[in-house]
Design brief:
It contains 8 helices and 3 strands, in the order H-E-H-E-H-E-H-H-H-H-H. 59% of the residues lie in helices and 7% in strands.
């Protein structure tokens, strides 16, 4: 998905219209994604591999005001709750945006243009991302973004 990943897109949708109910259709079953999605305001989390069986039920449940989680992810939520751990996200949403764009192969100038900021500001964001993650090469940033689900390989 260009510019935003699914979780950040859901956050933006929630920010723009609080009454909108969102369902994330994703391939990511890892607890960090599930928890970030729920913290971002999604009411449904459906795995693509279970979409045929789960999507209609998810829509019905979310329309009733309930939360729907694919069976493959509900265990991750329960485990995270029981251990009282939340996802550890070092980056701000803007920094995740910059990381995604870097991983997509955009230049600093292109990133600045896409985000409506100066080249210097885009470079500052990129530098902060590298410092926070302790990653100092673009290739390593790309690998990190793939592991985090910001882009697909």
């Amino acid at each position: 998905m260009p510019l935003l990943n699914g979780i950040d897109a859901a956050r933006e949708i929630q920010r723009a219209c609080r009454r909108t109910r969102t369902i994330l259709l994703t391939m990511h079953a890892e607890d960090q994604y599930v928890l970030q999605g729920l913290q971002g305001g999604v009411q449904g989390y459906v795995l693509k591999k279970q979409a045929v069986m789960d999507l209609v039920q998810a829509i019905q449940e979310v329309c009733r005001g309930n939360v729907y989680l694919s069976p493959g992810v509900s265990a991750a939520v329960v485990e995270a709750y029981q251990s009282k751990k939340g996802p550890r996200d070092l980056l701000t949403s803007r920094e995740r945006e910059v990381l995604q764009l870097v991983a997509e192969g955009k230049t600093t100038k292109e990133i600045a243009s896409l985000l409506g900021v100066s080249v210097k500001t885009a470079e500052s964001h990129r530098t902060r991302v590298m410092q926070k993650l302790d990653i100092h090469e673009t290739a390593s940033l790309v690998r990190y973004a793939i592991r985090r689900g910001l882009i697909q390989a």
